[in-house]
Every structure is written in structure tokens, then in C-alpha cells.
Amino acid sequence: MALLPTIKIGDKEVTRLICGGNPISGISHYSAEMDRDMLHYFTMPRLQALLDECWRQGINTVQTRGDRHTMRMYMEHVDNGGKLQWIAQTASEFRDIFANIAQIAAFGPIAIYHHGTHVDNSWHEGKIDQVRDYLKAIHDHGLPAGLGTHIPEVIEYCEEHGWETDFYMACFHNLARGYKAAPAVERAAHAKEQYVDADRDRMTRTIRQTAKPCLGFKIMSANRKCGSPESVRAAFEYAFANIKPTDAVVVGMFPKYRNQVEENARYVREILAAE
Question: What is the pLDDT of residues 180-192, one digit of tens each?
Fold first, then answer.
């Protein structure tokens, strides 16, 4: 299968559809039952099959948490001849984020971004400027540095103050209206999340006004817009109609019940071909 259309992150070509990592880590942002279903399904052989299927369907990049589980997953993929690129997120449960960045860098990602929940909590605590040091640490390892957030104002603040960001991970829903625990730390965190459609318009407006590449995530509201093939396609159509040509989307894929990788890649291919 031919590669999907791409954007640039640093000097790398990245497909405009990126395989997201939450299902890989058993984090559905939907229910405890779905979390368990994902955890039991995604054995290491099935994780390798997921990555291989992404490549077959024209996706060239996966985004996951930078924990030991996903580091091993990506190491095995590369050791077995896999060609997917990895964009890594700092892991919220690690006490020493600088050490985590160094660990991640040793496994060959093409970019690292700082976890959105920590960024957003720093924003609410009035400590957002401390986050800038993590970007510098990522750059010290010779990698593009990104920032994750659920809050549009965070991106606007960083741009206004000339932060050294190379890209943003931008959630279509503001799940951080106040202090928020990460699901890796508090497994029931999803129960406190609000998925408001108006948030999508607010974040995509910020994305369009930001010159740097943005990777939009939660475009399907964490399974809440997946009730039918039509609703899934509509979510992709909304996303690509409202972000820049230099942006991409990150979508978690859970192929236990149907081949979501093939479906998602097909929708993106068709939508972008029609632009």
C-alpha cells in the first residue's frame, strides 16, 4: 500500500494519520471495562501485528508513552525489521522526567513531547514556565521537542512567548479545566472527563493560527464518536477540514473486533484525495 500523505516533523516525513498509543497501554478514556479489554488483547505478538499492519496500510509513524512497555514494543519492532517511526511522550508516572527523556532517546524516537496532563497541571498551578526546561532537555538529545496540551491557551501562550517548540500535541477536547490526574496514575480518571463538541472548534482555531505542526488527538472523542462507520468518517472529515495542511491526526486503534487500521487509513486516503 502506498504511503499516506505526509507532513514534516523536524526533518522526518510523518503520515497525516499516526497510530496513537492509548489502546496499546490499555487506556481507553472511556470505561474500566474497555481498559481491561485492551490490556488483555494487546499481548506483545498482537502489538507487533498492529505495528506491521500500520505499515501495510500506509501509516509510517506510531505515537506512544515513553514507558518501559512501549520502549520494548518499539525495540522488538525495529529488531524484527519494522520501519515505523516513533514519536514518544514523557511518562507521567516517572518521578524524574529528565531521566525519562534520556531513556526514551536511547530507543530511537524521531521526536519527544512532554505529556499534556503534566503541562496542563503546571498551567493551572502557575508553573508553566518550568516546562520549558523539558523542551531544552529534549533538544539536548538532538530531537525535535513537542508539547502536549488539552488547553488552547497553553499553545497560544507558548507561541506568544517564543518557546522552542517544534510541534504541538493538541487535544480536540479540553479535558483539563482544572487539575487532572493522568490515567496511568489514576485508572478511573476517565470518569471525570468532559467531551464537549464546542471544544473542537476552539482548539482547531488555535491550531490553524499556529504556524508550527500540530498533531490533533481525541478527534473521535475517545470512542464517543465511533458508533458507526459514518460517524468515524465524519470525525476524520471534521478534523482535516479544520486543521492545517501541515498538521496530522493521532488515532488510537483497537483491532480486536474489526480492522480499524485499514478502515482509518482508507478514510484518510479518501478524504485527503478529495481535497
Answer: 555 555 555 555 5
